[in-house]
Structures are given as C-alpha cells and as structure tokens.
From TrEMBL:
Transmembrane annotation, as ranges: 34-54, 61-81, 101-123
Keywords, alphabetical: Membrane, Transmembrane, Transmembrane helix
Lineage, top ranks: Bacteria, Bacillati, Actinomycetota, Actinomycetes, Micrococcales
Name of the protein this chain belongs to: Phage holin family protein
The keyword Chloroplast is assigned to this record: no
InterPro entries: Phage_holin_4_2
Keyword Transmembrane helix: yes
Organism: Knoellia locipacati
Length: 129
C-alpha cells in the first residue's frame, strides 16, 4: 500500500510539473489551490491506472517502432497514455485538459518521464527489502 501511495504522489508531482511548464496542459480554471490539489491527485490515480492497464499492451504493439527509432517512440506511447488519461478524466468530472494533442502531450510526457524518474531515484519505493 505504501508503494502505491508513493507512486501516486510521484505521478501527481510529475503531472503538476508538466502543467506548470507547458501552457497546453492545465488542471481547470478554479483558483482555489485545494480543489487543484484534489484534482491533481485524482488525475494521478487515473494516470497510474492507465499506465498499469493500457501501457503494457501499447508497449507490446509499438515494439517494432521503438526498436526502429532507438527508443524515441516511447515518448509517443507516453503521450498517448497522457491523452487517454485526459479522455477518462473528462467524464469523471476532473478538469484536466491538453489543448494540442501531439506537441503538448509529447512535451508533457517528456517532463513527466524526467520528473518521475528523478523522484523515483530520490524516494524509496519499498522494493529494496
């Protein structure tokens, strides 16, 4: 359970960083910080579920492209996961939007990947036992 909570926290920080650095990614128009924090955490939960369920399938299907591009196609797969998260968050009532699918999602995926990796290195995940 602790590992799951740490992963959600890492995803939330990474999504917040992407929204802060890219104008095309946003978490609603409400200025209240409490509602934004709740929205970011809930979107991080959705993002984690999307990565756990859909990403393995997408990685298998995109494997030839990943090999041909020496791994760069992984960013496109990550951008697709971010877009799926937006599509799921909308009907759930979560104010998470990506204005331009391709570039905003790709740059957001790059930022999320970097921030998640950095935080995973710094924070323990409980697998070291």
């Amino acid at each position: 359970m602790q590992n799951f909570l740490i992963r959600v926290l890492i995803n939330a920080v990474a999504l917040w960083a992407a929204a802060g650095l890219i104008d095309g990614i946003s978490f609603g128009d409400d200025d209240a910080w409490t509602s934004k924090v709740v929205t970011i955490v809930l979107v991080a939960l959705v993002f984690g579920l999307v990565n756990a369920v859909i990403r393995p399938i997408a990685k298998v299907l995109s494997f030839p492209f990943v090999v041909l591009t020496l791994g760069l196609f992984t960013f496109i797969v990550n951008a697709f996961m971010l877009q799926i998260t937006e599509w799921i968050a909308g009907p759930l009532g979560l104010a998470f939007t990506i204005k331009e699918f391709f570039w905003d999602a790709v740059f957001g995926a790059v930022i999320i990947t970097i921030v998640s990796w950095l935080l995973s290195v710094v924070l323990p995940d409980g697998d070291d036992d």
